[in-house]
Each structure stands twice: as C-alpha cells, then as structure tokens.
C-alpha cells in the first residue's frame, strides 16, 4: 500500500488511533488475565506512594495481631491454671473439714494429700508456653516457683470465743502492756479487741508480721494469728509488763510468705499498637496463690489440729480470692480483644484499599476489552478501505 500526499494525514490519524486501540487492548488483555492493573509500580505511578504506605501499615498491623494472639494464648493458659488451683483449694477444704470434724486427719492422709496438691500447684505456677514461664513476671526463662527455697516461719495464735471484737482480756491480756515483734512494738490494753491488735500490727511500717483474726470453720471460735513473713524465726516478747504473750500459743506453721517466688516484680508486656504496650497477667506471688501455698504446706507438714485450723484460714482466703485473680485475667483478655478488633477492622480497610489500587474488576475489564476489540477491528477495516481510495475508484 502506497501512502500518497493526499491521503497521508488521514492515514496517519487512522494508524495512530489503531495503535492506541491495540495498546489499550493489550493492556486490558493483560489485566483481565492477571487481575492486576499493572505488573510494576510504573503502571500505577500516581498511587504508588499510597500503596507503599498501606502495605507498610498492614505489615505492622499483622505483627500487632500476632502479638495479641500470643498474649491471648498466655492469658488462656493462666486462666486455666488458676481455675485448676481453685479446684485444688476446694477439694482440700472438703478434706480438711472432714478431718477436723471427726479428728480423722491421720486416717484421711491429709499430709500426703497436701504434698500432692502442693506439687500440682507448683507445676501449675511453673506453666510454660513456647518455652516461656508465665507466672514469673518479666523473668520468663526461670521457673518462678521453688518450694525448696521457701522458709517455714513461726506462727503465734490464740483462740477468741464469740467474735473478732472480743477483748484481749479473754486471751490472757488482763494487764496492759506491749509486745515486741521482730523489733517493733505495739501497745495494748485489756479492753482492746483482737481485731484492733491485728490492725496495729499490720499498720506498722514495715509490718513485722502479718496478723489476722479468722473464724474456725463451722464453729463460733475465732483465731488471732500472728505470722512472720520475713523468712526468719519470729522474735516476739512482752516488753511492757503485760501478760498477753502468756495467752499466745507458739506453732511452727507457715505464714503467707512468698519466699518460694523466684520471679521479679514486673508484669508481662507486649506491644499491641504503634505507641501502646499492654501489661497483662498475674504473678506467682499473688496473695491468693501465696495463701493457697501456705495452707497446703501446713497440711503437708503437720496433722496437728491447731495447725490444720490455721491452714483452713489460708485455704478459705485462697478460695475467696482466686476468682478475683481469674477476673483480673479476664479483664486483661477483654482489653487486648478490644485492641484486636480495631486491628482487624484496619486490616479489612487496608486490604480493600490495596485491592482498589492493585486489582481490576475482571468482568468489567472483559466487557471493556470486547469494546476495544470491536474498535480495533473497525480501525483495521477503515485503514484497509482508505488504502483503496483513488480518483479512478472515486469516479466509478
């Protein structure tokens, strides 16, 4: 085909239009087969920076979601372990009640039951996940509980008939005086109550011992219990001329100490958002765990009735407070799930935005492809017809 001067302009226009149609047809054909607008960033140059920002944010968002998944798994394991310890405490209380009501502690092998329960508690508090200990605070590479290193402090106690507000005169403190407990002094009068004395001891700074007034189960008898928590033998003496110490019995029972705890005072933490790290979980030195351990250690080392009644006080405290530990874990779980929901929403948004930038609507692209195919065929036909134009053909 020869392009003449007279037809050059027309031919050029038709050829350029055909080439554009062919290029668009090729582009649409590639998009419909791959599902992507372009195979490189050049094809989406105006949206490249937005795409890169979205992809970077989505990657970080994915890491936060992974962190949250790990946190939830750890919290689930903590909750399961705490529930198991609550079951142990409930079972041991039942055995204690049976042993105390019928003086059958020896027949029930309470000491052996206590040892087995103690081993179970140690195993639960040394729970690991992916090689990390869960109950040791930020110390995750060392078992947080070691009962071999826990001291066995002394305990002094006295029975109180009636209620916790019984005067000290009923305990033997018929003359006012003062007690020296591990180097710190509390004064008393015969008219002071057992609970008032316990409050005085606990309010000293630092407290030289832990004092409480607890009810013996199923009786109208209360116990004033003074327990050392330092890990050393308790030093207690009358220094003010009174006679209250005469009414206190000395019993080598276990206090609510945490000498068994080998972790630190921090909490587990995880980065769950751009500028937010969450602290979560509980430690093995929680008072509820400590009381359960204290009660079980007493049970495992003594069948003396007074000791077992002191142990019952610890077990009761554990049963009362272990659900609070579970609730704390539940609150932590709820908090991270709230953040997780926000990240899941962003994940959906970001994926949709990236899809809008990268992907094509295949059915719509196929329809457009068919249109350009028709246009391309028409361009070829027009070019072919224009090649036949001549004066001779025109005059025919």
What does this structure look like?
The model is unreliable at 1-6 and 253-257 (pLDDT under 50). The protein folds into two domains: 56-152 and 255-345, f41 fragment of flagellin, N-terminal domain (Up-down Bundle); 155-251, Alpha-Beta Plaits (2-Layer Sandwich), CATH 3.30.70. Strand 4 (177-181) and strand 5 form a beta hairpin. It has 396 residues and is an alpha+beta fold. It starts with a helix and ends with a helix. The relative contact order is 0.16. The strands form four sheets. A four-stranded antiparallel sheet has the order 6-7-3-9, sandwiched between helices. It has eight helices and eleven strands.
Please supply descriptive tags for the structure shown above.
Alpha-Beta Plaits; disordered N terminus; 11 strands; alpha+beta; 396 residues; f41 fragment of flagellin, N-terminal domain; 2 domains; 8 helices; rod-shaped
